[in-house]
Amino acid sequence: MNLGVSSYSFSQSFARGEMDILDAIDWIATSDASHFELTGVGLVATVATLERGAPAGTWDPADYPDRKANIASDLVNQPALIAAIRDHAAAKGVPLSNYSVAADFRAQDLPAELARVKQHIDTAHALGIKYFRHDVVAWAWREASQAEFEGIFDTLVQASRDLADYAAPLGITTSVENHGFCLNGSERVRRLITHVDRPNFRTTLDIGNFLCVDEVPESAVPLNLPYASVVHLKDFYHRDFVPGDGWLKTLAGNAIQGCIVGNGDLPMKRLMAAIKTSGFDGPISIEYEGQVPDLYAIETALANSLRIWNEV
User: Cα torsion at 36, 88, 12, 267 (round to 10°)?
Assistant: First the structure.
């Protein structure tokens, strides 16, 4: 089991200013995780990060008058920070496995949006990362009708194909995640992959996110495993009503709340068994989002995942 952690899991510690991206790599190096995944949401780095990890001569302190400002909200065009992350991970023996960015191919200026995502593909390449995940629409968007979805589908295909073709000479496999409320259900993901028709365009398969569109994970996960380049382990509490704050309402009006992998309502043993018996040998990442303190949650999720994997 090639088990790692997504940087998104450290969002609480990043937001409180208790860790930066190099601290997260240090944490991974001493944990049960075997790789680290970078997501463009919530990363934190400051001048102190550069002082600690950037190679000499790659940056000028005069360019950073605010020492406390976060410079990691976008890694594009930041060679010193990219080098600091890449070199620190290498020094700690932590492989960088996947790179994730938001994208919306419904954008008014699609060529500009594609050019932006290609800059992130270049960044992933500079980091030595071979898997790259991008959205195709905004997380919260849902079409008003099937006709509206069909009207944008060819654009999603062409844009995803363009990015896959750009990434191929770099040895990078691109992917779409079952994410949000539009491109989420297992059939839609498979349909997009089939129409893009590129060997290096796959899916980052999140075992929990299918609940956002009320699809049963134990049915959806086996269907999409043959198309997966990366797997995200995520767990949710699931209710048939919205209990209060901190819950996400699904399309059908159910409610979910992120929790520690193995502690929620997903049939984790059944899902792990499906992954294991499929022969999937790519990166598997804990992606924690919940109300329990993040470091405890990640540590517990790693332990739970490894134990369950060995039991099935």
Answer: 10
Query: What integer pLDDT is reported at residue 123 of this predicted model?
Result: 97
Residue 135 DSSP class: -
Residues 127 and 210 in one domain: yes
Predicted local confidence at residue 7, as pLDDT: 97
Distances from the Cα of 204 to the Cα of 54, 193, 228, 287, angstroms = 30, 11, 6, 12
Whether residues 239 and 222 fall in one domain: no
Same domain? 164 vs 288: no
Q: Are residues 186 and 128 in the same domain?
A: yes
Tokens encoding 97: 């496995």
- The model's pTM is 0.96
What is the torsion angle, in degrees rounded to the nearest 10, for the CA atoms of residue 20, residue 24, residue 27 and residue 28? Answer: -170
Q: What Cα–Cα distance (Å) separates residue 217 from each residue in 71, 274, 279, 285?
A: 37, 11, 18, 17
Other beta carbons within 10 Å of 199: 8
SS3 content of the chain, % helix, strand, coil (to 5): 45, 15, 40
